[in-house]
Design a protein that fits this description.
Strand content: 15-25%
CATH superfamily: Flavodoxin domain
Helix content: 40-55%
Number of helices: 10
Shape: globular
Number of domains: 1
CATH class: Alpha Beta
CATH architecture: 3-Layer(aba) Sandwich
Bound molecules: flavin mononucleotide
Radius of gyration: 19 Å
Structural class: alpha/beta
Number of strands: 9
Order of helices and strands: EHHHEHEEEHHEHHEEHEH
CATH topology: Rossmann fold
Distance between the termini: 30 Å
Length: 215
């Protein structure tokens, strides 16, 4: 089972313990301005939170995007677990969940549609965000956005997300099955490419983490 955990930094535990002991409140009574302390305690509370980033991939490009999302989301802010969706038994215990999937034949991968449906009751209690990875988004137009957004509809119906990410993907013939590779060599839509925009992915992860942690 591939599992990685990104930690918000060694200070987090110390700060979290301080928050639990009510040190923020004590600082307020010692004369610090209340808005400042409120901000600090909000940030401490966020750092004790745990986000699950889970993904469905066939050839690995979505897994790499999920890794970048998880790394960016953790960045000194919270703890992030990253797991292939097939390996997620339970989403209980997480404060937020991010689900990403590659698109094939006009749909999210089957495990990205089926497994979250089983978690519907638990997802109803926490904020979620979704992203899909497709070649539809190689041109970022209103039409391609509408098409890519529609891929996420099965997840939206399970739980309304706080954010959605629509990312262009990649095709590496080496990662395809021999049969698909054979067809891909003569299909223009399956030619080798990498349209992933890492800056856009990181920016999305950054703002989405803030929204998830304050939702
Ligand atoms: C067999 C195959 C079918 C695909 N079908 C679609 C599709 O219907 N719509 C689309 O926008 N992209 C499609 N793509 C592009 C993938 O979504 C894109 O390559 C993505 O990055 C693959 O993710 P993965 O590497 O995590 O499997 C397809 C790719 C392959 C190889």
């Amino acid at each position: 089972m591939k599992r990685r955990t990104f930690l918000a930094g060694a200070t987090t535990l110390v700060l979290a313990s301080a928050a639990r002991l009510g040190i923020g409140t004590k600082l307020a009574s010692a004369g610090r301005s209340t808005p400042m302390v409120a901000e600090e305690t909000d940030s401490l509370a966020a750092r004790t939170k745990r986000i699950l980033v889970t993904y469905a991939t066939r050839c690995g490009s979505t897994a790499e995007i999920a890794n970048a999302v998880a790394e960016q989301m953790s960045a000194g802010r919270c703890t992030v677990d990253i797991l292939p969706i097939k390996d997620v038994k339970d989403v209980r215990g997480y404060d937020a969940v991010v689900i990403g999937s590659a698109v094939r034949m006009g749909r999210l991968l089957s495990e990205a549609r089926k497994r979250p449906a089983k978690w519907a009751a638990d997802l109803a209690a926490i904020p979620t965000a979704y992203f899909c990875v497709s070649m539809t988004m190689q041109d970022d137009t209103p039409e391609s956005r509408a098409e890519a957004q529609a891929f996420l509809q099965p997840l939206v119906e399970i739980r309304e997300p706080v954010a959605t990410g629509l990312f262009a993907g990649a095709i590496d013939h080496e990662q395809l099955s021999p049969l698909l590779r054979f067809f891909a060599k003569s299909a223009e839509t399956l030619s080798e490419c990498d349209h992933r925009d890492w800056n856009a992915i990181q920016a999305w992860a950054d703002t989405t983490a803030d929204v998830l942690l304050t939702a």
